[in-house]
């Protein structure tokens, strides 16, 4: 077993070997190195064909049409373009948006950016299990609401929102629905038609593709257009100008195509590992599951541990690559706002570990993690003044 054991697939995944091979070809072979917009010669047309093949591969995973996808630098940019782009384009219709406290920073900060410029934002608080009730979304709609932005799979807890129910409500009220599916795509089924999703953000590196590339799905019939954030050469219908990064995009396409083929196997694999770890962790007293027991994705297990101090716990797990709360918030060393929104105390939010599993995770790695966590918790509790309710 290679140390440290990597259990942070929700933060990023290694590039699949088939993806790497394709990307290397795109970068190294002169006949593939044309600018996808230089259609006057063969190399440009080959590059364009690579981009268009990838567009179709990405579209297939979410049941969209290829021409409804705009390539971006990742889900962060897609979230920004969706939220700010819709808000600006529809400003005359209204300046109210609905989102949740448990969204990714890319959504939260895009909404804050708008709030600072006069838009009104309703921040929904989920139930203690992390679910946003569709009825709460409906109750939050106002006559001037233009957009609801809610994620499919939460990146910290793995909780899956009922997007189909929320989509039906938004459609009925003629409000657009944006879904951040960076964590969910390829791990849980997504169908933009069946779930009535108008805009959807995707990232390649959460799904065995390269970092630095993503896409935004924009439903042609319901959205038509969003205001661009960048200006330049008119690529991607002017919504995202700039020379398309053929190698990144081709890599994303290949990764998404592989993900579509492997989805059922992947789901079964990660679920089995997650359940194995959860069963093991429950042998210890004072281990609390964060997020809904059933309605959650197989690749994430998030627990809070009573009777230990968060930072000490994290530093005693040096042989494991795991996240404490989330990769983004751990930089700021604050208690995870997502877990706080679920009603966890600051201490319990801090004493949380997010384990996330992927294609190459083995049962032996999970058992190793379990042993290391149990060891660390025993040791920390032996000299901790904090009490454990269960034992
Ligand atoms: C990782 C992630 C993002 C950001 O994606 P990037 O491609 O890294 O910008 C946004 N939303 C969620 C839910 C994520 O998990």
Your description of this structure?
- The chain is α/β, with parallel strands linked by helices and 391 residues long.
- It folds into 2 domains: 5-11 and 263-383, Aspartate Aminotransferase, domain 1 (Alpha-Beta Complex); 17-258, Type I PLP-dependent aspartate aminotransferase-like (Major domain) (Aspartate Aminotransferase, domain 2, 3-Layer(aba) Sandwich), CATH 3.40.640.10.
- It has 12 helices and 12 strands.
- The strands form 3 sheets. It has a 7-stranded mixed beta sheet with strand order 2-8-7-6-5-3-4, with helices on both faces.
- The protein starts with a strand and ends in a 9-residue tail after the last helix.
- It binds pyridoxal-5'-phosphate.
- Pyridoxal-5'-phosphate is lined by residues 74-76, 104, 106, 151, 155, 180, 182-183, 203, 205-206, 214.
Helix/strand layout:
Elements: E1 5-6, H1 17-28, H2 42-62, E2 69-72, H3 75-89, E3 96-100, H4 105-115, E4 120-124, H5 134-140, E5 145-149, H6 163-172, E6 176-180, E7 199-203, E8 214-218, H7 246-281, E9 287-289, E10 300-305, H8 310-315, E11 320-321, H9 327-332, H10 337-341, H11 346-350, E12 352-356, H12 363-382
Parallel strand pairs: 1-11, 3-4, 3-5, 5-6, 6-7
Antiparallel strand pairs: 2-8, 7-8, 9-10, 10-12
Helix pairs in contact: 1-7, 2-7, 3-4, 5-6, 7-12
The structure holds pyridoxal-5'-phosphate.
| Main sheet strand line-up | 2-8-7-6-5-3-4
Mean model confidence by pLDDT: 94
Instruction: Provide the succession of SSEs.
Output: EHHEHEHEHEHEEEHEEHEHHHEH
The termini sit apart by: 33 Å
Number of strands: 12
């Amino acid at each position: 077993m290679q140390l440290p054991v990597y259990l942070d697939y929700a933060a990023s995944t290694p590039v699949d070997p088939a993806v790497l091979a394709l990307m290397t070809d795109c970068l190294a072979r002169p006949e593939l190195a044309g600018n996808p917009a230089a259609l006057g010669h063969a190399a440009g047309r080959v590059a364009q064909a690579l981009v268009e093949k990838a567009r179709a591969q990405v579209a297939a995973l979410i049941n969209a049409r290829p021409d409804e996808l705009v390539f971006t630098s990742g889900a962060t940019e897609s979230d920004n373009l969706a939220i700010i782009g819709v808000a600006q384009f529809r400003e005359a219709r209204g300046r109210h948006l609905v989102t949740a406290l448990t969204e990714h920073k890319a959504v939260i900060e895009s909404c804050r950016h708008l709030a600072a410029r006069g838009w009104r934002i309703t921040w929904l608080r989920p139930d203690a299990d992390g679910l946003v009730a569709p009825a709460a979304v409906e109750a939050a709609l106002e006559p001037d609401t233009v957009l609801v932005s809610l994620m499919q799979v939460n990146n910290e807890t793995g909780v899956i929102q009922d997007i189909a129910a929320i989509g039906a409500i938004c459609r009925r009220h003629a409000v657009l629905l944006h879904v951040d599916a960076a964590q969910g795509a390829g791990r849980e089924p997504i169908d933009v038609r069946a779930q009535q999703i108008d805009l959807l953000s995707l990232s390649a590196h959460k799904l065995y593709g390269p970092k630095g590339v993503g896409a935004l799905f924009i439903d042609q019939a319901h959205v038509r257009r969003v205001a661009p954030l960048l200006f330049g050469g008119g690529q991607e219908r002017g919504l995202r100008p700039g020379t398309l990064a053929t190698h990144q995009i081709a890599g994303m396409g290949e990764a998404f195509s592989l993900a579509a083929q492997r989805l059922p196997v992947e789901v079964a694999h990660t679920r089995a590992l997650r359940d194995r770890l959860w069963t093991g962790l429950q042998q210890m007293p004072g281990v609390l599951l964060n997020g809904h027991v059933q309605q959650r994705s197989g690749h994430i297990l998030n627990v809070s541990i009573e009777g230990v101090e968060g930072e000490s716990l994290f530093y005693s797990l040096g042989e494991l690559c795991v996240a404490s709360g989330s990769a983004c918030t751990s930089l700021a060393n604050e208690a995870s706002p997502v877990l706080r929104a679920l009603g966890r105390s600051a201490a319990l939010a801090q004493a949380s570990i997010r384990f996330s599993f992927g294609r190459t995770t083995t049962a032996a790695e999970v058992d190793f993690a379990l042993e290391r966590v149990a060891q660390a918790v025993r040791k920390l509790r032996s000299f901790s003044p904090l009490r454990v309710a269960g034992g």
